[in-house]
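Can you give me the bound-state structure? Components:
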Amino acid sequence: MLRSTRGDQTARIGRRVRTRTYCERVTFGGLAFELLGSGPLQHDLDGTDRRFLVPGADPRAMADVVCAVHVKPPAPDSQPAPLSNAIHFCADAATGVTRVWSRELEAEVSRVAPRRYAVDARIGSRPETLVGLLRSVTGAIVHAEGGLMLHAVGIELDGRAVLFLGPSGAGKSTAAVLADGARCFAHDHVAVVPSGRGYLVWGLPGGTPAQVPLARDVAYPLAAALRVRKAAASEQPRALRLAGAQALFSLRESVECADQSPAAEDMYLRASAKLSSDIDVGALATVLGRPHGSTLREWLRARMAERIAREEQSTC
Amino acid sequence: MLAGNAKPKKNSRNAARVVDGKALIVVIDRKQLHTLNAVGTRVWELCDGRSIDAIVESIMSEFDVDGPTALRDVQHFLAELRELGVLDVEAA
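Here's the bound-state model for the whole set.
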């Protein structure tokens, strides 16, 4: 249960009743949220979702978000009623406001200063709508800041994140299990956000209830992303480098995009292209029952050596 | 067979990026990604309002290919791209 840091207090002064505003600070998906409610936020985050929240404002957060949350369903005629609970986005370039909506939430996201956003949100009374709000706002802001929301499994290997990419059934979860010596910190979705000279990967809720993150932290610096495929039992696990259009394709294929306008698509492609040139992208052939932690480490070391050699050549 | 003076144009609802000479095209309405090889990318780049005949002429000048082969291959490729939603073809 999200609880206010100040408690639920009312005080009578004469005939007036004062109710304090609820405030909770959490970091989620690389964003430091300040959640403000005009009443108690009676929304519960279950144990799995809570693993992806960092209490307070994490210094690694990419942006600050002040989010006013009203617990009531969205106005019935404010948007066309979606057929499913999918989240929809619409960015208005003229006003700089991004509207986010689903069947159970509605929000306006505005950029008020560099790396500072304000959100006005209305959510339904069901407990899961608060996490839905955090995820949808995170998606809007991460993409606007040049990051990407990816459908991926994230493992921590020697303190750095390696992402496994591919459509459902490609073998991402199996690849994580077979990565001996690594710990999974995200089972389904991640936010990749620019950070300094590189990128940070933040785990997001997802996966089955039986899968819980095994890593200690929820965010790690990104080392590589690998498109997974299942190899035959007679083969050996191996990793190959992808470059150019293949690398871009592997990343773009995994982008979670709720805004389907050409402008948004251009943004996803641009971010995917930049990411594909900034990090190591590869293809990983996995074999059931054959661990590939050492294969991954060897591949990462080889990519690092190539990178150092390229940098030395460019400075000569 | 598309008319030689028909003018293929890139579908404005798509997004694309050319990396290392290869185009990656996102057909948003169909949620599909397509990659083109170097020659296909060049044909696609030439779909900027010029006619199919003009595209074939450019391909013949840039690549080692005879006229009938270029015409046949370009026609076939453009028809395929139209089918995939990558291009719109304006009638002459």
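A couple of observations. Chain B touches chain A at residues 12-17, 19-20, 22-24, 26, 28, 33, 35 (CB under 8 Å). The mean pLDDT of chain B is 91.
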